[in-house]
Amino acid sequence: MNENTTVLISGAGIAGLTLAYWLRRHGFAPTVVERAPAIRAGGYKVDIRGAALTVAERMGLMDEIRARRTGVRSGTVVNAAGRRVASMDGDTFGGRVHGDAELLRGDLHQLLFDNTEAEYLFGDSITGLTQTDAGVEVVFDSGLVRTFDLVVGADGLHSATRALAFGPEEEFLRDLGHRIAIFGVPNHLDLDREEVTFIGPGRTALVYSTGDGADAKAMFLFRSGESGGTAVPRGREAQEKALAAAYEGEGWEVPRLLDAMPAAQDFYFDAVAQVRMDRWSSGRVALLGDAAYCASPASGQGTSLAMVGAYVLAGELAAADGDHRAAFAAYEREMQPFVERNQKLGPSNLKRMVMRTPGAVRMSMAMLGLMNRMPGRERMMAKVIAPIHAAATAIALKEY
């Protein structure tokens, strides 16, 4: 019989739902609290790579994951005039190899939710934690007060659980000097499972569609300074102004994409940042996924880190019969080398994704154009993809 049975998970994202699945499978009683009123739909496309594929296979979900793949067929890079510089197949463009799967975040959320048995507290959040020898007394925003054996914060980059148990986020966030914005736009380019990327000095913009419908997604990635430059503006109006200012005077379809910004219902804007912590547990509270070791969107590994971390944390709790001290220590030992390898991808990928100067843009466009015409370009792209695959497989998963 497990020593600690009741586990509160803060956040019904990919990390939290995967953890709830494995905890239930190992005989624990998970409760998931989520600020949103329901499972989040839509969202950006995400990749499941390497060791995370093994986790999904052990959950019996790979057939359903593959059935929900975006099926993006091609990726194209264009210049300011909209002329195609280079094109390649969607998997190569996205750095996917060896069965890696791309799907919409919302589709993965729903799939995990449908296959997980847990108690859910939607429309609520944690506002207070008090640890005792017997458990953790949790105060919720709704006024509810309950006690759990353990608490796991899987509530993202700006984790409220981390702030309550470890301290303010400024102590742990490492700003990578870039900002990211994502929102839905009309599919005025009539894209059908296609992605188009424009690269300007210090700023990149892309738009893609996962079908032939009326909707598409736009993403903007731009430099904000060597160490973050200015703080992330607060409030949507200020964030929209900051994004428009960053891309002022830009070519291609950028002005038209930005014109769609005010009407977007899914506007997202934040720093491209990592979470760096010496430890991911404090007493009976542990952290998981982006809350503990965000590698940044530039790594392309957030989803895989979340799924692998959840599998390992639940497995170590089961292996230790719920002894949280032993389990949390083992979780950190197993995950730290994997996390470190994947976090290195963020800064290195940013150098390829955002060119600093007009000269660097011209050189990048020339190289892409040359590579697009050369035989053996697949081998050249394989060398670019190799570090991503190596990081994604840099852990040997135990059988718990």
TrEMBL record:
- Is Transmembrane helix one of the keywords UniProt gives this record? yes
Bilayer-spanning residue ranges: 6-23
Keyword annotations for this protein? Membrane, Monooxygenase, Oxidoreductase, Transmembrane, Transmembrane helix
List each copy of the FAD-binding domain by range. Answer: 5-341
Which top-rank group of organisms is this from? Bacteria
Q: Looking at the keywords, is Transmembrane present?
A: yes
One Pfam short name: FAD_binding_3
GO molecular function per UniProt: FAD binding; monooxygenase activity
Q: Which protein is depicted? A: FAD-binding monooxygenase protein
Origin species, per record, is: Actinomadura verrucosospora
> What lineage does UniProt assign to this protein's organism?
Bacteria, Bacillati, Actinomycetota, Actinomycetes, Streptosporangiales
